[in-house]
TrEMBL record:
This is Uncharacterized protein. The lineage of its organism: Bacteria, Pseudomonadati, Planctomycetota, Planctomycetia, Isosphaerales.
Length: 221
């Protein structure tokens, strides 16, 4: 369930049926927590609203801050029998459903709409962080590309995954990966880190002496 708060409706239950449709559970949090609450047992329950059913497999959906739009990844069938991975945008007010852009790789490491504005950050398995722009279909911004560079005798590789906006949108939290190759070998360092909404550089939040995976990340409210 996303964006649960006192007196609010639950905008999304996360239910897929079976990966082709997305439903919304229209109950308040207070109702869901009540001792006499009975969960829906069939999709015919009037408390369940079909938000999306467009015929192709969907995944990694995220809501706009006001709950009026839904961005999601979709595997679209092509005339030649292949499939094309794209990000689509569903408008709940007008029923529109359009392609925002091509997906960034075959692996997803995060997909989140910012707390304000139209930016949707996405991570991939290559260690890149991108932004899609809901108000500008076709625009895709590379915020933090995986990068390799020299520092003295060291070769350093930095990657970012699982981008998550801070609740005020001023900072992006990431799972930070850094490897340093030199004559002594290639130590690998992973840490939760933060960076500006514009991308690199990242500031690691733990010492390299602490072994961790930091996957996934989450902010307190």
């Amino acid at each position: 369930m996303d964006r649960i708060g006192p007196g609010r409706h639950v905008p999304d239950s996360g239910m897929n049926n079976p990966g082709y449709s997305i439903w919304r559970l229209n109950v308040t949090v207070d109702q869901a927590l009540a001792p006499d609450y009975v969960p829906p047992s069939t999709y015919a329950d009037p408390r369940l609203q079909l938000v999306l059913d467009q015929g192709d497999p969907t995944a990694h959906h995220t809501w706009s801050p006001d709950g009026s739009r839904l961005a999601y990844r979709c595997s679209m069938a092509q005339p030649d029998g292949t499939r094309r991975l794209v990000v689509r945008l569903k408008g709940l007010m007008d029923g529109s459903d359009q392609v925002l852009g091509e997906w960034i790789s075959d692996v997803s490491t995060g997909f989140m709409w910012g707390p304000s504005g139209d930016r949707i950050v996405a991570g991939n398995g290559l260690g890149d962080v991108w932004a899609f722009h809901a108000d500008t279909p076709g625009l895709r911004t590379l915020l933090a590309p995986a990068r390799t560079y020299k520092s003295g005798k060291d070769t350093i590789t930095e990657e970012a995954r699982y981008p998550r906006f801070r609740p005020d949108g001023g900072v992006i939290g990431i799972s930070y990966y850094k490897s340093v190759t030199n004559k002594s070998g290639t130590p690998v360092y992973r840490s939760p880190a933060i960076m500006a909404p514009t991308g690199w550089p990242a500031k690691a939040l733990l010492s390299s002496s602490i072994v961790n995976e930091s996957i996934p990340l989450g902010w307190t409210p």
